[in-house]
C-alpha cells in the first residue's frame, strides 16, 4: 500500500490511479497509525513524520519526500531501519530562480520605491537605478537551483562564482571556491545568493566576518535555509550598513516573529518562505514519483532518482 500524508489535487490523484490501477493508494491529511502500519511506501512533505510513526510503519520500505529538505524528518530512526529516501530535488529550480531574479531586478531598478510613490500619487524621478549588466554574483550552493539562477544571470552578463564544500566545477559558474575560501571572493561580489540546505556544515556558515568582507553596497539573499546565518548577525550587518540590502525568504525562526527588527529595517525585504511556490509544484513532484514507482515495482530499486544521503542531509 502507498500512503500519502497529504491529499493531492483531484486531477493528479486521478492520473495516479489510472497510471497504477493495481496499486492501493491511501490519501490522508493526517498521519493515521492504522493505515501507516500497512504502508510499504510513504509519500510525505517531510514535516509530519515522527520516530513513533517510523516504528509503527513495520512494512515501510521506501519514503518519497515531496520536498527537497529533510531536516524535519526523524532521519536517525529512518537510517537505523535502512529505509531508502528520495526527494524531488530539482523541481524548485524554476520558481525559485525566477523569484531570486525578480528580487534582484526590483532592487536594482528601485521597484519598491516606485510602488510607494504610486500609492501616494507622487511623480518622483529621484530613483537610484543601476544596471545588473556586468555585475558579479556569488552563489552558495550551485546545484539544480543555484545553477538555474546562474543560467538566468548569464543572460545579464553577470560573472558567477559558485561556492560549495568541495569546490568542484558546477554548471553556469565562471569560478568555483570551497566554503573555507568564501571570504576571498566576497569583496568582488555585488550579489550573494544562498540556496544551501540545512546541514551541520552549513549551519551558521555565514558569519560577521563574511559580512565584513562584503561591499557596503552588496545585496545579500538567503533562499535556502534560515540556519545559514544567525539572526543577530544579519541584523547587525544591516543596521551597521556593512551591506547595502538583504532579501530573505527563510529565517532561523519561522514564521518570523512579529517583533523581529527585520520587519522594520529599510534595507531588508522579508519574503514569507514562498519562493518555491508554484501551481506546478505537485505536477513536477509526481513527474519524479511516477517513474520511480515504476522502477520500484520492477525491482530496480537502485535506479531510483534523487536518493537522499541521510548523513549529509541532502
From TrEMBL:
- Which residues are in the D-isomer specific 2-hydroxyacid dehydrogenase NAD-binding domain? 101-275
The UniProt entry, under Pfam families, shows: 2-Hacid_dh_C
Q: Which GO terms describe its molecular function?
A: NAD binding; oxidoreductase activity, acting on the CH-OH group of donors, NAD or NADP as acceptor
Q: Which UniProt keywords are present, listed alphabetically? A: NAD, Oxidoreductase
Does NAD appear among the keywords?
yes
Q: Quick check: keyword NAD in the entry?
A: yes
Origin superkingdom = Bacteria
Coiled coil regions in record: none
Q: Which CDD domains match?
A: 2-Hacid_dh_1
Protein name per its UniProtKB record:
3-phosphoglycerate dehydrogenase
Instruction: Name its species.
Output: Candidatus Kurthia intestinigallinarum
